[in-house]
Amino acid sequence: MSESLIRLENVVKEFGGKRILNSINLTVRDKEFLTLLGPSGCGKTTTLRIIGGFETPDEGVVYFDDQNYNRVPAYRRRVNTIFQKYALFTHLNVFENIAFGLRIKKVPEHEIKKRVSQMLDLVNLSGYEQRTVTRLSGGEQQRVAIARAVINHPQVLLLDEPLGALDLKLRKEMQVELKAIQKQLGITFIYVTHDQEEALTMSDKIVVMNKGDILQCGNPTDIYNEPQNAFVADFIGESNILSGIMNRDLVATFAGRTFECSDAGFLPDEAVDVVIRPEDLKIVGGDSAQLQGVVRSIVFKGVHYEMMVETPTFTFMVHSTLCEPVGASVGLYVQPYDIHIMHRQQGGV
User: Fold this and answer.
1) CB 262 within 8 A of CB 250
2) Rounded Cα gap, residues 24 and 135, in angstroms
3) Could you tell me whether strands 329-333 and 291-300 are parallel, antiparallel, or unpaired per DSSP bridges?
4) Taking the CA atoms of the chain, what radius of gyration do you get in angstroms?
5) Cα distance from N-terminal residue to C-terminal residue, the chain
6) Which of 26, 109, 266, 286 could form a disulfide with 246 if both were Cys (CB 3.0 to 4.6 A apart)?
7) Cβ atoms of 177 and 201 closer than 8 Å
8) Average model confidence (pLDDT) for the chain?
9) Which parts of 16-151 are beta strand (E)?
10) Is 0.90 surpassed by the pTM of this model?
11) What is the mean pLDDT of residues 75-93?
């Protein structure tokens, strides 16, 4: 990955006396697809707006290429933004919507035609030039918005939940297309969403936020497999989160018994949070079972069954391609490396 393009250092933002960002630090690399992920009100859109120049930090500095950009207005930054509402010009056809930014810059007509044609090819809308945007589907309107945003060759494209208005099938299709467009253009995408699947599907790097703080930053595999706290584990995918005790390195007690694990570096007998993904729990029989429970409910999810298995101390969510009937007594087994131990999070998940 290329060198740092954008850095936020100790950035604080307040609105009406309420702190929205708590001295956050973030690095965005050139040509990176970075996603700001978190629940509503976590500060992700405010972070995006500060990067775009629509808001100014109350404290801290925003750097572009190591230059302080705090007082550089939005129109002087090589940044374009796509919002959930695409704000297309309904009185203009597809061609003129895409060409709008070039006409403002008084680009020659032959150059406008060439570049609009290239953008139409990029977003698979060749032949749509004369259509009014009101006759386009939601997915087609989004493609027009993308083409209009990137035709001026921005260094960074900011996307604030741009797929939120689309239906599930189209949203999944556009996730793949957006990632392909980003790779083909070779520009930096900074994407805001509360949808974990979007983040995992498209991102080179995910930044998980909550209550104005960055809780974890890493690639999708690390974020999913090695969450740093219970909030991240709960927000990214399904999780069983239990209270436990880290007896010593590689040994933890939870759910009424002691397990081997692969974590170390905790205090002796430290209170911890234990995370086990539902797909990492195996239904077994005989002596290999670590826990015994009863199947209380079953939901078919398409590629697997989701079973709630009640043990004496905890009810586990289990994902399996094999289904046990409600009321069946089953054994559960988990590998040591699938038990994730983390420092206790104050206040719960």
Assistant:
1) yes
2) 43
3) antiparallel
4) 24
5) 33
6) 266
7) no
8) 93
9) 18-29, 33-37, 59-64, 67-68, 79-83
10) no
11) 88
